[in-house]
Amino acid sequence: MKLASWNINSVRLRQALVLDRLQGLDLDVLCLQETKTEDQFFPVEAFAEAGWPHIVMRGEKSYNGVAIISRLPITDSAHHLWTGRADCRHISATIEGQTIHNFYVPAGGDEPDREVNPKFGHKLDFVDEMTSYFSAQPPASSVLVGDLNIAPLAADVWSTRQLKNVVSHTDIEREMLLKLIDEGGWVDAVRHHYGEEEILYSWWSYRARDWQASNRGRRLDHIWVSADNQDKITNIHIDTATRGAEKPSDHVPLVIDLAS
Description:
Elements: E1 2-7, H1 15-24, E2 29-33, H2 44-50, E3 54-58, E4 66-70, E5 74-78, E6 90-95, E7 98-104, H3 118-136, E8 142-147, H4 171-183, E9 186-188, H5 189-194, E10 203-204, H6 211-214, E11 217-218, E12 221-226, E13 233-238, E14 254-258
Parallel strand pairs: 1-2, 7-8
Antiparallel strand pairs: 1-14, 2-4, 3-4, 5-6, 6-7, 8-12, 9-12, 10-11, 13-14
């Protein structure tokens, strides 16, 4: 199975780019975050006609939204209302015997203080609940992907010193995400493949005049696998070139190849 995860920042706005990457990367499954559209307006027919007819999605107007697009049959799907909110941040599907969880974790606002910034508190509660959920029922034959909005390692950001008090790389976020991986029974597939020292990014701000020249990125997007899947990883690819496409998302696809 060749699977990718991508925060698309509006699937309707970037439908042509999604179709291009589905075909160009020869994907079996694509998990999207920030689809930003209600289910009734999701471009199901365009993807089905291109060869990816199996689709599950949870969307809302203008915000959030997750979807799983597949050319392989989806035999089951579900979702969980994390922190009790129906804000379309999770969907799961069973494909070829693998349970695929697709997450869009809250960004957390600008101020890393839950007392003055409720968005940051929501983010911490969300990750804490994910930890409790997966530690209570360790995953098997599973993959977890998504924009988790946390860059946990020093090599996941352009400057760990300058970003240590910036939301997405604060100590508490980093510690909580690593705890989720450890206690939740997951393997960080990207780091398992590349090691912990290689500098890797999946997101570059729109604010940069020249994103490639400044290269001030962060690895906010993740692919994790259950322990029984780690020896099935045959390749990991971060499709950096997609950031240079016309009208791109600020995130790029992460791709994993899993042997059967």
